[in-house]
Design a protein that fits this description.
Helices cover 15% and strands 37% of the residues. The protein is α+β, with helices and mostly antiparallel strands and 312 residues long. The protein has two domains: 186 residues, D-amino Acid Aminotransferase, Chain A, domain 1 (2-Layer Sandwich); 111 residues, Nucleic acid-binding proteins (OB fold (Dihydrolipoamide Acetyltransferase, E2P), Beta Barrel), CATH 2.40.50. The radius of gyration is 20 Å and the shape is globular.
């Protein structure tokens, strides 16, 4: 089985591509995951090449998932909340780090692997096949179940976008049916059109209520390497237990100096932190002051803080 590879990524677009060679798929707001499987083992590796096999025991046996003797699948692992994909919920599974918490997390948060591409099958790479042929082979090989589904493709991108907009879902991805799969690539052969506005930001500080954090001070890096304050967030998906856990974890990161190049509006009450933690946010829009309007915390994520830039 080949070593883990970097997946192909879509670029952002405001326009939905039109024409016979384009298909559209739902953007699921989950965790991007490649599955590497053969007769002896299965490995799950995320887009940053971090292994997540232990977190998802649902995918232990290749024969239950696929008719190939070995395979590399590309897709997203999702969890639902009130019938819709929830990034916060899936992070409850993805964030498990101790073996004794895996079984309870499985019971509490069922997941589904939404598969949309095939990179390797029966001993050969198929990256150079057009997407249309890869999709045909994928449909022949994958065995759908409660925990694994194929992502449907539709020709009417505008209609699909209207449907996800009505349901408050994240967006769509449009893909060129003639395109090959470029490992580690990112270009206009795949484009994402987002309904939600979201980003991953760096945590550079916090405010406290009593001894517990109640809001995060957030930033993005500029081209010159300076961390720029973009707003604070205290609402969203984090529970009281999450805030308590974050407060405890923040102690070794506390520092006297402000990590932001500009001064946050809450700087007098702030506890400054070494800018290494990252968090996924949803927000309404950018203000003319360069800050986020109504940011909402979705979950802490594992990301390289240096990559959290204004080039989104």
């Amino acid at each position: 089985m080949p070593s883990p590879v970097l997946p192909f990524e879509p670029i952002s677009s405001a326009a939905i591509p039109e024409g016979d060679r384009w298909i559209a798929q739902i953007k699921w707001d989950g965790v991007r995951m490649l599955l590497y499987g053969d007769q002896s083992e299965i490995r799950l590796v995320n887009r940053r090449l971090n292994e997540r096999t232990a977190q998802y025991p649902e995918y232990r046996e290749l024969k239950r998932l696929c008719r190939a003797k070995d395979v590399i699948l590309d897709g997203e692992i999702i969890a639902l909340e009130q019938g819709l994909p929830s990034f916060h919920q899936v992070m409850k599974r993805d964030g498990v780090r101790s073996a004794d918490r895996v079984a309870p997390a499985m019971r509490a948060v069922p997941v589904v692997y939404m598969v949309f591409d095939l990179l390797y099958a029966d001993g050969e790479w198929i990256l150079d096949l057009p997407l249309s042929e890869r999709q045909t082979r994928l449909a022949e090989l994958v065995i759908p179940s409660e925990t694994l589904q194929l992502v449907p493709s539709v020709a009417q991108g505008a209609a699909l976008y209207r449907a996800i907009e009505e349901r408050g879902m994240e967006g769509i991805v449009c893909k060129d049916l003639t395109s090959r799969y470029a490992l580690g690539g990112k270009d206009g052969r795949w484009v994402k059109i987002k309904n939600d506005r979201d980003l991953i930001a760096v945590v550079g500080g916090m405010t406290l209520r009593g001894n517990t954090a109640n809001a995060l001070l957030l930033g993005l890096y500029r081209e010159d390497g300076q961390l720029i304050y973009i707003g604070h967030a205290g609402t969203g998906k984090l529970t009281a237990a999450d805030w308590a856990e974050f407060t405890a974890a923040s102690h070794p990161l506390r520092q006297e100096t402000r990590p932001f190049a500009n001064r946050p509006e809450r700087w007098k009450d702030a506890v400054w932190l070494k800018p290494v933690l990252t968090v996924k946010l949803k927000f309404r829009e950018w203000t003319h002051h360069g800050t986020l309007r109504q940011p909402s915390i979705q979950a802490f994520v594992e990301a390289d803080a240096a990559e959290c830039t204004f080039e989104l």
